[in-house]
Design goal:
Elements (H helix, E strand, L loop, with lengths): L4 E2 L6 E5 L2 E2 L7 E4 L5 E4 L2 E4 L2 E13 L4 E6 L5 E5 H7 L7 E11 L2 E8 L3 E2 L1
Parallel strand pairs: 1-12
Antiparallel strand pairs: 2-3, 2-6, 4-5, 7-8, 7-10, 8-9, 10-11
């Protein structure tokens, strides 16, 4: 029998665009298309949620104020995880993948995901 974990998710909204959740919300996201032009994807604000995913760690990046690790799901949607959050769940990585429940967190002006575990989560 799996234990149910209770989690308090923050009530802020998460910025998304046509490509998935955004790392920050600076007025949209510019992406270069296959023909070399740049397109701006508008921001859609979605409620924070708890969700189950199997994610593969595909890289990392450094910004002005944070280090994030890049995770991708089977649908090629990209999620970002702060180094401090990865440190808390690194023992759960198996061959570069992390499965379980996640929620979004905001640190400063940046957004990322936080691993909650493999057990069912009650919000």
């Amino acid at each position: 029998m799996e234990k149910t974990k209770s989690v308090s998710k923050k009530s802020y909204k998460i910025p998304w665009n046509n490509l998935g959740p955004m790392q920050w919300d600076e007025g949209g996201y510019w992406m270069q298309s296959s023909n070399g032009t740049f397109e701006k994807y508008p921001i859609m604000w979605k409620d924070n949620s708890v969700f189950y995913k199997k994610l593969a760690c595909t890289g990392y990046g450094k910004g002005r104020s944070s280090v994030t690790f890049v995770f991708t799901d089977d649908e090629k949607i990209t999620y970002y995880m702060f180094l401090s959050d990865l440190y808390r769940c690194i023992r759960h990585l198996e061959k570069g993948t992390l499965s379980g429940y996640f929620t979004f967190v905001k640190k400063g002006t940046n957004y990322g995901i936080q691993y909650l575990g493999v057990n069912e989560v009650k919000t």
